[in-house]
């Protein structure tokens, strides 16, 4: 049986919209990847030990850190060991992104603990986010 004159409807398939990366999103993705890989070190003590061993690939420091001596120590260690240092505005955001919180049923962060410094030993699986952050830091240095 032929179906002449009958048009078959064409269904348009929507392609997923890929948002361009911005710095907070890239940092979130990078930290999540490092958490899953077990290569994220939270807090000044752990990050300083990581840098002393020469194993840090990136250090993230919160700009609203309460203790100026912490900031000086982290910046000096990064400079001495030639580790890239990225500044984030708020330590509450850094604490949430590094997993120092609890999540409710809706997925909202609760009881967020601020974190002034984190060190990343290895990037993990999200190389795109690391590349974006590296390019951002390179442009900021120029």
TrEMBL record:
Keywords: Ribonucleoprotein, Ribosomal protein. It comes from the Eukaryota. SUPFAM superfamilies: L30e-like (SSF55315). Residues 26-118 form the Ribosomal protein eL8/eL30/eS12/Gadd45 domain. Gene3D superfamilies: 3.30.1330.30. GO terms for cellular component: ribosome. The keyword Ribosomal protein applies. The keyword Ribonucleoprotein applies. Pfam families: Ribosomal_L7Ae. Belongs to the eukaryotic ribosomal protein eS12 family. This is 40S ribosomal protein S12. The lineage of its organism: Eukaryota, Metamonada, Preaxostyla, Oxymonadida, Blattamonas.
